[in-house]
Amino acid sequence: MKQDGEIRLLLEERRKGTSQKLAAARTGMSERTGRKYERAGKLPSQMKTPRTHRTRTNPFLTDWPGVQAQLQRDPALQAKTLFVLLCEAYPGRYQENQLRTLQRHVQAWRAQSGPEREIMFPQEHVPGRMAQSDFTEMNSLGVTIAGAPFEHLVYHLVLTYSNVEAIRIGFSESFESLAEGLEACLWQIGGVPQWHRTDNLTAAVRDLDRDGRHEFTANYRGLLNHYGMQPSANTAGCANQNGDVEQSHFRFKTAVDQALRVRGSREFDDRTA
């Protein structure tokens, strides 16, 4: 099989007026091969057809019905787990390098016969429209002050279009912490968006009303009215709707962890330090 570059060179020679025989010789192919590609008017990569047949026998053909029954019983079973079960049930029948083949079979089964997946629609972000915020606990980083664990949260606000972000340390998810965090972060970013979306914090969001809409607390509405923002909240159980700030939580905590590792210690003399 010739490479696209060789055929391009052949066709370039022909455009210059070189004879077919000489052009083929200059590009290292026979005159017959050169004539084939010139008549076709296509590059080798364009003449390939997808393979629809198997080149070797399916090694899992005999045991696939049992694997399929396991998947139908519990679709969350992983191919590696199923492969280990097959190896235990039939010693010597399968080799380690056949795991990838089973993974492809399981992947195809999930696509054709597996449970339906939730459809996620991408969110369109517009400059100045939306900020998302939420609290995230920082205790997993193991920071200590004078030998005692420094148990704290971070209030995290992110502009969804630019991903500009701001934080404030807090110690609870109370309305006071929410108000202080929101105010401090708005001052840090130097502006106010049209909408503010939060998770279903009890400090801001009540249960749904009879029409299925969010009800916001009077204090929270008063806070947003002061800054001229409209309230928004996630649908219950749909954390992806607050995805920008959730992802920023992960990146921020990873960055803090790396900084602590570079510092060589998670111990501080006081909060100012």
Secondary structure blueprint with pairings:
Elements: H1 4-15, H2 20-26, H3 31-40, H4 64-73, H5 79-89, H6 99-113, E1 130-137, E2 144-145, E3 148-149, E4 153-159, E5 165-170, H7 175-189, E6 195-198, H8 218-227, E7 230-233, H9 243-263, E8 267-268
Parallel strand pairs: 1-6, 2-8, 6-7
Antiparallel strand pairs: 1-4, 2-3, 4-5
Helix pairs in contact: 1-2, 2-3
Structural write-up:
This protein is of the alpha/beta class. It is built from nine helices and eight strands. The termini are far apart. The protein has three domains: 4-46; 64-113, no CATH class; 130-268, Nucleotidyltransferase, domain 5 (2-Layer Sandwich), CATH 3.30.420. Helix 1 (4-15) packs antiparallel against helix 2 and helix 2 (20-26) packs across helix 3. Helix content is 41%, strand content 13%. A hairpin with a 5-residue loop joins strand 4 and strand 5 (165-170). The radius of gyration is 31 Å and the shape is extended.
Annotation keywords:
273 residues; extended; five-stranded mixed β-sheet; 3 domains; 9 helices; alpha/beta; Nucleotidyltransferase, domain 5
CATH homologous superfamily descriptor of the largest domain: Ribonuclease H-like superfamily/Ribonuclease H
Q: If you average the pLDDT, what whole number results?
A: 85
Give the strand order of the largest sheet, numbering strands 1, 2, ... along the chain.
5-4-1-6-7
Q: Count of DSSP E strands?
A: 8
The biggest beta sheet reads: 5 strands, mixed
The CATH C-level name of the largest domain is Alpha Beta
The share of residues in helices is: 40-55%
The percent range for strand residues is 5-15%
Q: Structurally, how many domains make up the residues?
A: 3
Quickly count the helices.
9
Class from secondary-structure proportions: alpha/beta
Q: What is the element string, with H for helices and E for strands?
A: HHHHHHEEEEEHEHEHE
- Unreliable stretches (pLDDT < 50, length at least 5) are none
Q: Any idea of the CATH topology of the largest domain?
A: Nucleotidyltransferase, domain 5
Rg estimate, integer Å: 31 Å
The dominant shape is extended
CATH architecture level-2 label of the largest domain? 2-Layer Sandwich
